[in-house]
Amino acid sequence: MSLDSPRTATRHERLTAHEALQRLEHERASRLTQLRAIGEAGPDAEEQVMSAQKATIGRVLKEVEAAVARVGDGTYGLCGNCSKPIPVERLEILPHTRFCVPCQRDTV
Fold first, then answer.
1. Does residue 12 have a pLDDT over 60?
2. Is the CB of residue 80 less than 8 Å from the CB of residue 60?
């Protein structure tokens, strides 16, 4: 399935592959910057907080990388559970999401 809008869809129903990759690159850069900042915080920083932040950032970075792979294989923007298109508004807010809102609720 292509990320490009079908002729019958309006522009706002789907993200193009280029738009998706731009959002994902921004997300990746933000997480890498956060990891660098944590690394530079030094030994005075609270170890538990830093460890939790690093784990969270690492998890999100893995999700971003997986989303980039989905762009490549043509499955980006499709729910990993029900296979329906994920609304573009959700992808704009959370570009690395794998699930539509109803399926995300079911997985939590």
1. no
2. no
Total count of residues recorded for the chain: 108
**What pTM was estimated for this model as a whole?**
0.61
The helix/strand/coil state of 72 is helix
Torsion angle in degrees (nearest 10) through CA of 91, 95, 98, 102: -40
Residue from 64, 63, 65, 85 nearest 75 by CA = 85
Six-digit token string for 96: 């690395």
pLDDT confidence tier of residue 37, bands split at 50, 70 and 90: confident
Residue 71 confidence (pLDDT): 95
Question: Measured between alpha carbons, how far is 64 from 50 in angstroms, rounded to an integer?
Answer: 21
pLDDT tier for residue 62 given thresholds of 50, 70 and 90: very high
Inter-residue contact 86 to 79 (CB < 8 Å):
yes
12: DSSP letter: G
